[in-house]
Amino acid sequence: MRILDESGARALTTSVARSGRELEALEAEWEALYAASPAATPFQSWAWLYSWWEVYGERYEPCAITVRSGGELAGLAPLARERGTGRVLFMGTGPSVYLDVLARGGEEAAVVRAVAGRLREELRPWEVADLQHLRPRAAARGLLEAWRGPAASLWQTNCPVLEARPFEELLGALTQKQRGNVRRLVRRSEREGVRAVAAGPEEAADAASRMLGMHRKAWRERGINPEHLSPRFEVLLRAAAGRLTARGLGFVSEFRRGEEVVASHLLLVGHDRVGGYLSGATEEAFRRYAVYPLYVRDGVEAARSRGLEAFDLMWGRGEHKLQWGPEMVPSRRLVLGRNRLPLWAPYAGHHLLRSRVKAAVDSGSAPRPVMLAAEGYRAARRLIRRRAAG
């Protein structure tokens, strides 16, 4: 497919990668495009998404739309068709905090228009494109305006984000009692020789497994995401940690006391921020150090040392995150279709209702029966998914 850019001076061409082999062959171009795409996050890198494809790809048919300008890759919509569901999704849907189209800086609007045109051709009349977890800067948000057909934009979730200020300044958001406790526990960790050590590329996979093992033990009875208990999630983490670390897009930071690893977290290094994706700690570390302040200090220092503006706490509304006074940054989902029926209208309507209920529950403004029903639903879903994960 050939499309003129906005000025009409240069043609953009689109094609579709339909196999894992084609995705693998895009590695060098994909990573160069990621580096040139200011809105992209590490979740759009080849290192992350190809690792996801290796683990979860059997459930999908790739239909990644490439956009070229003068033969060079200017944009990429890493999409996949979920088998048997009538949905086209971003690759990485599920374990990825943010999803998006990659678009070279300065060419975002033209790339999005090209993606919209090709996606409409690819989408079957009975299918929907469900494009989730789009942060405010996401290039893919432009698809809402560019799309010729039924489209809905829905709130999906909020992610807490801290400005990368000195740790002592961040303590100002806590109560006096909380500040005293944090300082006491941080001093204890320092007296006992706890230090953060970044795992290198050769150590990253094993460091990811250690982190996940501690995470599973600590959270198994505390409402863990059931997918985190599955063997395939560990395979994803091991592969992605090695590739991300080798490319400078992330690393596992381990808190060591002597030779013992007492806590760790996987940090992702983006264009504008560092994000804390997953963490784990021993029960002793939770008791002796409270741990989360160590993660915050480490993440903020990682951002500041790289000249980045923020430490993204990513998913979750736990008090251990909210007490730091983060900005709650909304992510949205786009539901696109060729026709309102048979699928788009009921699918979009269902998720619109869910979005409104979830927003009310998260804000605490929902009636008490709705709050209780939502908690019961979440508990049942966790149980079902945990059993399904084995």
UniProtKB/TrEMBL annotation:
<dbReference type="InterPro" id="IPR038740">
    <property type="entry name" value="BioF2-like_GNAT_dom"/>
</dbReference>
<feature type="domain" description="BioF2-like acetyltransferase">
    <location>
        <begin position="177"/>
        <end position="321"/>
    </location>
</feature>
<protein>
    <recommendedName>
        <fullName>BioF2-like acetyltransferase domain-containing protein</fullName>
    </recommendedName>
</protein>
<dbReference type="InterPro" id="IPR016181">
    <property type="entry name" value="Acyl_CoA_acyltransferase"/>
</dbReference>
<dbReference type="Pfam" id="PF13480">
    <property type="entry name" value="Acetyltransf_6"/>
</dbReference>
